């Protein structure tokens, strides 16, 4: 703005001077043209000087420092953005690992409940686990397979078949799709109608009995330690005398060798004594 103000004041002053001197002022036309040319050149030079004076001396060292400062600020901003993205990525990875671990724990607990016959609890835990992982993942597909079996166990046959069909059509894992198709084929097979009289009833074993129950090896060891004793009332002594069996030491050859040596020594002793 200061440069424009100086230029405008310069032009205004020249116009006022020309108006005061009048049109007849100056030499001939030929000489006036050359004079005007030189005067214009002088004005352009003066204008450049005025612009230079208005702008002041240019300091190129300051400009380079400003550029360096702006570049360093941009680099710091880029590094800060990269660091924030890295931290966000790590945080998301840790959160996903935690959620996946919770889903795996729920799956294991539901499998135990299913094995013990508590199907309603198994359904609840499997549905909760399915909300934590995407259904198109391998873990999500495994959870859905177990959920379909639990649906069938609690009597929700339609939900079971629908879940199997959804797995067959949408899941990316070929093995899970094939497993779902096989289980759906079994679930859709006609059921055999069995009456209660035809069912086999297995009594439940109490926990206290399981703790006190002995293993087969312990029972055999106890039987070997305890000799078989017959009660005095049921023993038949005549039968024992008729069916007499010598003890084990009488069947041993070492016993008879020892008896023979003993009798020989007794005979020799009696012979020398006489």
Automatic annotation (TrEMBL):
SUPFAM superfamilies: TPR-like
Keyword Manganese carried by entry: no
Organism, scientific name: Ceratodon purpureus (Fire moss)
UniProt superkingdom: Eukaryota
GO cellular component: chloroplast thylakoid membrane
UniProt xrefs under InterPro entries: TPR-like_helical_dom_sf
Residue ranges of the TM segments: 254-272
Designated name of the protein: Uncharacterized protein
Segments of skewed composition (Polar residues): 59-69
Region annotation (Disordered) ranges: 22-81
Alphabetical UniProt keywords: Membrane, Transmembrane, Transmembrane helix
Biased composition (Basic and acidic residues): 40-50, 70-81
